[in-house]
Amino acid sequence: MDADVIVVGAGLAGLVAAHELTSRGRRVALVDQENAANLGGQAFWSFGGLFLVDSPEQRRLGVKDSLDLAWNDWQGSAGFDRLDDEDSWAVRWARAYVEFAAGEKRVWLEGHGIKLLPTVGWAERGDLRADGHGNSVPRFHIAWGTGTGVVEPFVRYARQAARDGLLTFLHRHRVDELVLEQGAARGVRGTVLAPDDAPRGVAASRGAVGTFELPAQAVIVPSGGTGAAHDVVRRHWPARLGTPPARMVTGVPAYVDGRMLDISARAGVRLVNRDRMWHYTEGVRNWDPVWPGHGIRILPGPSSMWFDALGRRLPDPCLPGYDTLGTLRHLRTTEDIAGYDHSWFVLSRRIVEKEFALSGSEQNPDITAKDRRAVLRDRVLGKGAPGPVQAFLDRGADFVVADTLEWLVEKMNGLTDEPLLDADLMRRQIRARDLQIDNPYAKDAQVQGIRNARRYLGDRLGRVAAPHRILDPAAGPLIGVKLHVLTRKTLGGIQTDLDSRALGADGTPVDGLYAAGEVAGFGGGGVHGYNALEGTFLGGCLFSGRAAGRAAAQQTA
Ligand SMILES: Cc1cc2nc3c(=O)[nH]c(=O)nc-3n(C[C@H](O)[C@H](O)[C@H](O)COP(=O)(O)OP(=O)(O)OC[C@H]3O[C@@H](n4cnc5c(N)ncnc54)[C@H](O)[C@@H]3O)c2cc1C
After folding, report:
1. Whether residue 252 has its Cβ less than 6 Å from ligand 1
2. Which residues lie across from 50 on neighbouring strands?
3. Does residue 378 register a pLDDT over 90?
4. How many Å is the Cα radius of gyration of the chain?
5. Based on CB atoms within 10 Å of each CB, which residue in 57, 513, 516, 527 is the most buried?
6. Domains of the chain, CATH where assigned
7. Which of 83, 185, 213, 29 is nearest to 502 (CA)?
8. CB 238 within 8 A of CB 533
9. Rounded (5°) CA angle 488-321-433
10. If we measure between CA atoms, which residue out of 531, 542, 9, 473 comes closest to residue 264?
11. Are 218 and 552 in contact (CB under 8 A)?
12. Whose alpha carbon is nearest atom 7 of ligand 1?
């Protein structure tokens, strides 16, 4: 088939771009190194959290949000400080994206049949400063069907376009080179990989059976980030985050390998903000791994106590669900703990039951399957921890449970090479925190935060345990969770203009070349700046993939 446009990557951004093209009658070659089972890329595995501003869901829960407030939060989080250079397009993308999230986004999602849960989560509560990082209000809307539901319509459109003869799937085709003619992108070259019927997400072989070359008038690169390539993560790890851990768990499938970034650079494309990345500090080893080193991120409520490897409570704002990179920075730059790769949550059974959620579509099978009855049974009426959380309590290598603190600490010490934790020290800190619980006000910032959270209806009903003493036996048993750094998102990448045109070294667009999704820093080469507000990655793929598809369709008209 002769393609008008080649799309390199069949993740969410690529599928959205392909839909924009085929719905305008363009012929698309959709090329991916993985097999057909992996259609949809990371988005299929994602939790489906979507950042929206001033939505009906927020309003129903009494949240007063606005474009002004969201833009203030975005700027405080992003901290754009390369405005004349690497952030020059990122900041424009940021403004356009926040306007999209406060305006057209919800209707556009609805138009594709994507519905939202009535609850709105409060992710990245921030660094405790009005002009600093974080969401002033809850904005994390979960798609009905999780990320699997977000990607589903675009998979359906692609399959229909293939039946209509407008789209050709080229699975197991790995692009190794962008072909440029007189400075214009005119095709790709690569390797045909051996057939491999590995199930979705499982690392497939890289054995080659041939080569290929495809011509087209334009090429879109939506090839994802670098989260599975720990060597690449380490290479770009910024000094401000200290030293990278010797061992990390991996929050993305192996195909999130970042190769296309270097391939694009070799074609003259400008890569920016590569030192910006988004890794989580609440990763646990998956007891039932799909991809190599598979880690799951705990989406914590605000009540667990957080301790470093030596058993000292983390300082504010290193609180669960507040400031992801602030916590990472603390763990990696504090001299006497930077040599250890882990930290700890200590909590009660009451907290785990109400507050623990796990990120990922497969960890939320009720929402992913759009099974209303199961959601009601397990999350609203059910007693005890949700099934997937209970499975980690029972089988997760990083979870220990005990009736007394001394016993718990002994078990926690059993999970490290040397016994680093002292039960007396931990008891003193937990007791001091517990003494703050009896009054409706307190001097402890975390306890204040719990009470603040419970003034929001969504948190009180579904997400934040009633304040109680962690050492109260009635709230027990006690739980300890060993936390690892989990690699996930790449915040920088290919610099693009607002039409998702890839820019060259001189800052002007490379004719016929576009980039979208994570490889483009979710737009502009880093729409998030230094910090994300969460739920902004899927949306960034939708928004930048749409822009790329529309612009490429116009170019090839
Ligand atoms: C478990 C999990 C939970 C998440 N939860 C959320 C959430 O709640 N909210 C949110 O906003 N975001 C979330 N994310 C992040 C979000 O899912 C991703 O950032 C987004 O889906 C990336 O999409 P993409 O299209 O840019 O890239 P990808 O999905 O990575 O797709 C890129 C595709 O390109 C292919 N490719 C790469 N290189 C080549 C090459 N050289 N040749 C051919 N093909 C190539 C890959 O095989 C892949 O199929 C989550 C991610 C994970 C893994």
Report:
1. yes
2. 141
3. no
4. 23
5. 516
6. 5-164+222-279+488-555 (3.50.50.60), 298-486 (3.90.700.10)
7. 185
8. no
9. 140
10. 9
11. yes
12. 49
DSSP lists the bridge partners of residue 278 as 489
Contacts 24+ apart (CB under 8 A), 208-213: 212/170, 212/173, 213/179, 213/187, 213/188, 213/189
Residues 6+ apart with CB under 8 A from 406: 423
Three-class DSSP category at 118: strand
The pLDDT of residue 1: 65
Q: What is the pLDDT of residues 476-496, one digit of tens each?
A: 999 999 999 999 999 999 999
Identity at 202, one-letter amino acid code: V
Its pTM surpasses 0.85: yes
d(CA 202, ligand 1 centre) in Å: 14
Output the CA 11–ligand 1 centroid distance in Å: 6
Ligand 1 center–CA 426 separation, angstroms: 40
Dist. CA 70–CA 214, nearest whole Å: 43
Residue 503: its H or E element = strand 501-503
Strands of 218-221's sheet in order across: 167-171, 28-32, 5-8, 218-221, 509-515, 501-503
Q: How many A from CA of 41 to the centre of ligand 1? A: 5
Q: Which atom of ligand 1 is nearest to the CA of 263?
A: 41
Instruction: Give the tokens for residue 551.
Output: 């612009």
pLDDT at 232 over 80: yes
DSSP, collapsed to helix, strand or coil, labels residue 461 as helix
The pLDDT of 109-116, averaged and rounded, is 98
Q: How far apart are CA 17 and CA 161, in angstroms?
A: 13
For the four alpha carbons of 141, 123, 105 and 517, in that order, the dihedral sign comes to negative
- Joined together, the tokens standing for residue 57 give 């869901």
**Cβ 331 under 6 angstroms from ligand 1:** no
Is the CB of residue 325 less than 8 Å from the CB of residue 452? no
Token pair 């495809």 is found at: 214
Q: Determine phi and psi for 303, rounding to 5 degrees.
A: -95, -20
Q: How far is CA 419 from CA 238, 313, 400, 430, in A?
A: 31, 17, 15, 19
pLDDT of residue 381: 80
**Of all atoms in ligand 1, which is nearest to the CA of residue 545?**
25
Ligand 1 in reach of 538 Cβ (< 6 A): yes
Q: How far is residue 227's CA from residue 236's CA, in Å, rounded to a whole number?
A: 12
Q: CA-to-CA distance for 206 and 34, rounded, in angstroms? A: 10
Q: At what angle do helices 67-78 and 90-102 cross, to 10 degrees?
A: 150
Structure tokens at 229: 């390539």
513 lines ligand 1 (CB under 6 A): no
Minimum-distance ligand 1 atom for the alpha carbon of 540: 11
